[in-house]
Design a protein that fits this description.
Number of strands: 9
Helix content: 40-55%
Number of helices: 10
Order of helices and strands: EEEHHHHEEEEHHEEHHHH
Strand content: 15-25%
Shape: globular
């Protein structure tokens, strides 16, 4: 597989196959900190979770197995609104409860969790959650001829960025399982190789910058 990486200082993108990937995904840090964010990414926002092609049908088929894990108001929202709901951008998303949290949200000691994922972890369904949720903070957008992957900056997730930096876990590493689920293991391996090359290049650039700034002293 061919990886096209431009390592010029002004470049911000990497291409693997037909995927255009922001360097932010390779360099920025992220680890969810539920004790601080309380899972509010599932509660706040203008619309529900984006659904990839075929996911609405999957959720409809699995609903009888997922329903026991949902709150009554969540089940009511799903049954009243249906799956999917079309948002203002014309995209398929999960329904909301009274315009607030996702209908699949459940709470445990004040922290929001995904009811779909709870059913998955209990072995009731084989579908873990919408891929958009599992990939977050990566957001995927389809264009004619290519797919763009970007880091979605949300102030709500600043604790996750701080924890990721502390643990030295980069975004693509944090969502490794989701990337493999969406695009396959070879794709992740290519991304990891590109990230290491980029890391080496950044180190060379920093050393060159230090030489230029302080070299005259020695």
């Amino acid at each position: 597989m061919i990886i096209f990486v431009s390592l010029r200082k002004d470049e911000k993108m990497l291409q693997i196959d037909d995927k255009i990937i922001s360097f932010d995904i390779l360099e920025n840090h992220f680890v969810c900190d539920l004790n601080k964010c309380k899972g509010n990414c599932c509660v706040q926002g203008a619309s529900g979770a984006p659904l990839a092609e075929g996911e609405a049908e999957t959720l409809n088929n699995l609903y009888p197995d997922i329903k026991p894990f949902l709150r009554p108001e969540g089940a009511a929202a799903i049954e009243q609104q249906g799956i999917p709901v079309i948002d203002v951008d014309g995209d398929e998303v999960t329904p909301l409860i009274d315009g607030k949290e996702c209908a699949y949200v459940v709470f445990d000691r004040g922290i929001a969790f995904c009811g779909i994922e709870k059913a998955y972890l209990e072995g009731r369904v084989s579908f873990r959650k919408p891929i958009s949720c599992q990939l977050y903070p990566i957001r995927v957008k389809q264009f004619s001829g290519f797919t763009a992957l970007n880091d979605d900056r949300w102030t709500l997730c600043e604790p996750a960025r701080a924890l990721g930096k502390e643990k030295k876990v980069r975004i693509y590493e944090f969502v490794k399982e989701a990337i493999i689920r969406a695009y396959g293991k070879p794709f992740f391996e290519d991304m990891n190789e590109a990230a290491e090359k980029l890391k080496e290049k950044r180190l060379i650039e920093r050393n060159q910058s230090l030489d230029e700034e302080y070299g005259h002293i020695f």
